[in-house]
């Protein structure tokens, strides 16, 4: 029989569970191993996602560069054609003999320039539409892939 100081109760035949340090260490090790495995899985998923995102951005920037160059080349070609047409028209105006011939040449030139401008605008619009689709495709594909993986998880 033992007495606890400060109290009037006695404690008889009380058994305390024995502490086995080897079992505790095994349990702590098991929990630590499980945490490490889970951390590796999470890191692997994050790493894979970051790599996919990086590839998508690289592809997007490369596509933007390529399509930007194409748009620039089409714009330069249109400006060059317009400048050449202007110089050719100016040479024709210098050789004009009468006022009626001047108006006839000017009217024909303006009409042709309006047609050319409309065609150039259509061409640039088509290039810009394709460029928009091409530039946004890698990011769109990466987002769709991420959503599919998210739904599967």
Number of E-state strands: 2
- How many distinct helices? 2
Q: Largest sheet, if any? A: 2 strands, antiparallel
Percent in helix: over 70%
The geometry reads as rod-shaped
SSE succession: EEHH
Q: Beta-strand percentage? A: under 5%
Secondary-structure content class: mainly alpha
Q: Which blocks of ≥5 consecutive residues have pLDDT under 50?
A: none
Structure description:
With 153 residues, the chain is an all-alpha fold. It has a domain at 60-152. Helices cover 84% and strands 3% of the residues. It contains two helices and two strands. The mean pLDDT is 83.
Features:
mainly alpha, 84% helix, rod-shaped
Q: How is the secondary structure organized here?
A:
Blueprint: E1 2-3, E2 10-11, H1 21-94, H2 99-152
Antiparallel strand pairs: 1-2
InterPro entries: Phasin (IPR018968), Phasin_subfam-2 (IPR010234)
Domain Phasin: 53-141
Protein name: Phasin
């Amino acid at each position: 029989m033992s007495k606890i100081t400060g109290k009037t109760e006695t404690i008889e035949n009380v058994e305390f569970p024995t502490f086995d340090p080897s079992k505790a260490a095994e349990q702590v090790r098991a929990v630590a191993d499980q945490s490490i495995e889970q951390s590796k899985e999470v890191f692997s998923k994050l790493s894979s996602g970051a790599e996919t995102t990086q590839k998508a951005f690289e592809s997007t920037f490369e596509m933007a560069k390529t399509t930007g160059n194409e748009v620039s080349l089409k714009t330069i070609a249109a400006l060059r054609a317009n400048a050449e047409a202007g110089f050719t028209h100016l040479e024709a105006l210098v050789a004009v003999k009468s006022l009626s011939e001047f108006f006839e040449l000017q009217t024909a030139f303006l009409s042709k320039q309006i047609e050319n401008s409309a065609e150039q605008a259509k061409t640039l619009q088509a290039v810009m539409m394709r460029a928009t689709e091409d530039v946004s495709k890698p990011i769109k594909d990466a987002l769709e892939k991420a959503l599919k993986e998210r739904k599967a998880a």
